[in-house]
Amino acid sequence: SRPPFQPGIECPCLGEGGPTAMLRLQWNVLSKVGLRNASWLATSVLPSYRDTLCYFSSQEHPGVDGYVALTIDDGLCRQTVGNSLVEEVRSLLQRFRARATFFLCSDYTAGLEDMAKRLLADGHEFGNHCPRDREYASFQPAVFEEALVQTSDTLAALTPDGKRPTWFRAPQAKFTASMREAVLRNGMRHALGDCYCDDYAIEDPLYIAETLLGQVASGSVIVLHMPERGFREHCLEALDLLLQGLSERGLQCTTLSELDKLAASVVADQEVPRSLTPKRGVIARSFARFRRKARTFEPDPIMPPVALEGQMSPIGNRITRCSL
User: Fold this and answer.
1) Taking the CA atoms of the chain, what radius of gyration do you get in angstroms?
2) Residue 72 — φ and ψ, nearest 5°?
3) Taking Cα atoms as reference points, which of 167, 72, 158, 162 lies closest to residue 111?
4) d(CA 284, CA 191)
5) Distance CA 324, CA 299 (A)
6) 69 phi and psi, to 5 degrees?
7) 220 - beta bridge partners?
8) Nearest to 117 by CA among 149, 163, 71, 79
9) Which of 40, 50, 146, 309, CA to CA, is 20 to 30 A from 117?
10) How far apart are the first and last CA of the chain?
11) What is the pLDDT of residues 133-172, one digit of tens each?
């Protein structure tokens, strides 16, 4: 039987007091900076995230024009089956002809296997989100991989052909180098997103929808959380408002796998003029200049060089020579 729901353990960052001014301020600022800029910076600086998918640029991948990937985390239901809102979410997606990638926790699918199969029949897909909604970055590598494989086994059993998931999302976005190795070894790719605003904690559906709509563009990956009765229930209304807004903008929701195929179907075969490329923002441009300077660094000819062959610099470049 499923263990009892323990919010303090499974989602320790969840507050009891609803939306906070600090969270809103944080996401207002990040939305201005641009989550694409932030994700570009993270994948450039942090080796474990270097091949994480956050979005597809429509300038580089014209095939994604008019499409976004909708992803929904922490399904299907961590409480009793009677608290499930899977059918309500499914009906919403059907109404807007939207498809989604559900990042499922394997412990939260018990008793909902038939509903999961109906989601797959509707054209949705499942991604691996570990057994429970908690961080796994602190786990020993072997223990994490065991949990990863357990989830993939559970999700594969739900598919007609036993297909294993090809996408993984680290709970709480905490992703280490050893986790990355295990994910790749098991035939999956890590995915985050460029449209997000802590919807699980900000209990204001209109704010969530407006914030995500302010971040979205063709090729975006939207991140939402699965609603349940009495837990994150506001996410259902947020999803409804979001789907309405996307429809009004002519953006169609699809799965991560389908967006990936669209991106590969048409790739820009010539360099996009600088005037047409999206501005990466002050932070990204400044970091790019810093990287260029770092690559052209020459040791002081007066001081003897110290061999640091094979070591990694803080910005991820392999050091060949350095001076004291």
Assistant:
1) 21
2) -130, 120
3) 158
4) 21
5) 9
6) -95, 125
7) 55
8) 163
9) 146
10) 61
11) 999 999 999 999 999 999 999 999 999 999 999 999 999 9
pLDDT at 215 over 50: yes
- DSSP-assigned beta bridge partners for residue 127: 103
SS3 56: coil
Task: Give the predicted TM-score (pTM) of the model.
Answer: 0.79
Dihedral class, residue 315 (left if φ above 0, else alpha if ψ from -120 to 50, else beta): alpha
Average pLDDT over residues 275-297: 44
C-alpha 259/C-alpha 130 separation (Å) is: 23
Residue 61's pLDDT band, with cuts at 50, 70 and 90, is very high
pLDDT value at residue 223: 98
| 125 burial level (CB within 10 Å; 0-12, 13-18, 19+) | buried
CA distances from residue 149 to 23, 122, 142, 169, 303 in whole angstroms, order as listed: 34, 25, 11, 14, 52
Cα→Cα distances 154→7, 105, 196, 218, 240, Å: 23, 9, 27, 33, 29
pLDDT confidence of residue 321: 29
**Which of 6-15, 33-42, 199-208 has the highest average model confidence (pLDDT)?**
199-208
d(CA 240, CA 237) in angstroms, rounded, equals 5
pLDDT digits (tens, 9 = 90+) for 161-188: 999 999 999 999 999 999 999 999 999 9
Stretch (H or E) spanning 60:
none
244-249 contacts at long range (C-beta below 8 A, 24 or more positions apart): 244/96, 244/209, 245/209, 245/210, 245/213, 246/68, 246/96, 246/98, 246/213, 246/216, 247/96, 249/213, 249/216
State how far the Cα of 298 lies from the Cα of 28, in Å rounded to an integer.
41
pLDDT of residue 322: 32
